[in-house]
Amino acid sequence: MMLEVNGVAFNYRSKNVLNDISFEVNCNELVTIMGPNGVGKTTLLKCMNAIFKPGAGSILIENEDILKLGRTEIAKRLGYVAQRSDSNRMTAFDAILLGRKPHVRFNISEHDLRIVNAAIRKLGLESLALRYINEMSGGELQKICIARALVQEPRLLLLDEPTSSLDLKNQIEILKIIREVVEEHQVSAVMTMHNLNMALRYSDKFIFLKDGLIFAAGDRDDITPEIIEAVYGVTVGIEHYQGYPVVVPIN
Amino acid sequence: MHLTCVEFPTEYKRYISRKVSLIISGVVLLAILFILSISLGAVHIPPAEVIQTLMGNSLSKQWDIIIWNIRLPQSLTAIVAGIGLAVAGAVMQSVLRNPLGAPFTLGITHAAAFGAALSVMIMGTGVMQSSSASAVKIIHPYFTTFMAFMFSLIATGIIIGVSRIRGSSPEVMVLTGVGLGSLFTSATVFIQYFADDIELAAMVFWTFGDVARASWNELGLMTAVLVLSVVYFMFNQWNYNAINAGDETAKGLGVNVDRVRMLGMFCASLLTSMIVAFLGIIGFVGLVCPHMVRRLIGDDQRFLIPGTCVAGGILLLASDTAARLMISPHTLPVAVLTSFMGAPVFIYLIVRGYRR
């Protein structure tokens, strides 16, 4: 078991956001959290990373309680890709090198540079390495953020809407990269997403949040039009195309 | 997860050494400027003789006095104050993720000016005199310095206090700073309205930032605080880089964002307050310098912090030398010159947009 979330609850200024959230993530598994805007998907990711302290419950990564670890120790286990990352006049190489922060106190070692170089290769960013990130497109910047999380050498990746502002080609590229990393590198990933079809195409498991609770969870076969209608309030049908379910809105 | 190590990125290494050599050239330029600054003035001393005298060979009694008592402390003060103001500005911009973060825009210098004005009012410390150095003298300079320092610390304290209540977001800190700036300015105007003409002259005189004011003792104190602060800033370079990528990304990388921001602000404010308290208000060095360096070597704090130090030293030393020579044999306080440079840069920043 990679990750165990047990009975997590979170209140934001006396407003109850999350209630009794429990689920598990296995090794080499990609889990997508879905639900309408404002339901608490991002909040849940932040709780899992201890950026927000949950009011109740526990989060265990490989049987260690996250809430009892220091920030640096958490960063060695969990890579977090925020929904929005600021760009500045820093080269892509340096921006990715920042991911070594949890492992570095002051001086960068040759080992760190080699790892960054490996991540650049992995994501095909060679031609961008020495360009400033504030001159890059949204897709390129998102790849750099993912590369930054990879060089943290985490056990689990948390990605907050990794494809939200990207075009179709970039969405597919990013999700393929995440998929590949999960399959090849003994790492798991949890992401939030709005695009149901993309999620169904690339994820292993799904969690639907509604009113601060887990409304439904399971793999592809467990997703029904009724669940989607109940969560989003939209009538849909689910068709199958080349073995993958496709969600189609009906009026 | 494990990434397989690949070969060493030689191109990156070359890119880094370009940045390092840029900073080293800056240091060389600063050294040349330093000798030149001591050499130039009402009495011209050739650079070779300046070096000889600095090495301890006494060439002429007059030159010894000019160099050791007047020009050397002034040049060193210009360098130390330039480094201090510039690096404090760079750190404030970084931890606040705001290009307008600087002691001047955060109201810290206004608070110092109010403290100085108050001291003149309470102690009646201003007198007119007809010396060649200045028309107005402050009788208890240390009390004035102390008051200026205290009030700039109070301003810092309020900014930090408010951000404790409202969360230390960049917007909260900058807006509080703007509010404080105008509060202290109006308080200063209030005091000035009730001051007599001599007190008023002393208050206004104090605000003209001038590096000629510092003695060797004050220079020593400023240097000590500067060295400690720069070491602290350098130690936090990766934390500042992480904060620049966004608060949440930084937290995900294991940075205690609130603490790093608070301590960074505190150290930068302490450094600025002390310089302002000893020398008066020297505006815009903290704002202009980091932006020039960002253009040249980028936002990476590993190079931005040392780069800003070198550029700050060069900028204030060059400005001070120019201010001394411009209307020779009279001298102009350096702040008059730096303030002139500040306004165009401010406007340039707005035209270019707020992104760094």
UniProtKB/TrEMBL annotation, chain A:
Gene Ontology molecular function: any one: ATP hydrolysis activity
| A matching Pfam family | ABC_tran
Q: Record's SUPFAM superfamilies?
A: P-loop containing nucleoside triphosphate hydrolases
Q: Does the keyword Glycoprotein apply?
A: no
Q: Which domain of life is it from?
A: Bacteria
Q: Which PROSITE patterns match?
A: ABC_TRANSPORTER_1, ABC_TRANSPORTER_2
Q: Where is the ABC transporter domain?
A: 3-236
| Keywords assigned | ATP-binding, Nucleotide-binding, Transport
According to its UniProt record, which protein family does this protein belong to? Belongs to the ABC transporter superfamily.
Q: What is this protein called?
A: ABC transporter, ATP-binding protein
- List the lineage, top down: Bacteria, Pseudomonadati, Thermodesulfobacteriota, Desulfobacteria, Desulfobacterales
UniProtKB/TrEMBL annotation, chain B:
The record lists the membrane-crossing segments as 20-45, 65-92, 104-127, 139-160, 172-195, 215-235, 263-288, 303-319, 331-351
Its chief place of residence is membrane
Q: Which UniProt keywords apply?
A: Cell membrane, Membrane, Transmembrane, Transmembrane helix, Transport
Q: Which SUPFAM superfamilies match?
A: ABC transporter involved in vitamin B12 uptake, BtuC (SSF81345)
For this protein, the record's Pfam families field holds: FecCD
Query: According to the lineage, what is the superkingdom?
Result: Bacteria
Q: Does the entry feature the keyword Magnesium, yes or no?
A: no
Q: Name one GO molecular function term.
A: transmembrane transporter activity
Could you tell me which PANTHER family the record lists for this protein? ABC TRANSPORTER PERMEASE PROTEIN MJ0876-RELATED, FERRIC ENTEROBACTIN TRANSPORT SYSTEM PERMEASE PROTEIN
The record's comment on protein family reads:
Belongs to the binding-protein-dependent transport system permease family. FecCD subfamily.
Q: What name is this protein filed under? A: ABC transporter, permease protein
The source organism is: Desulfonema magnum
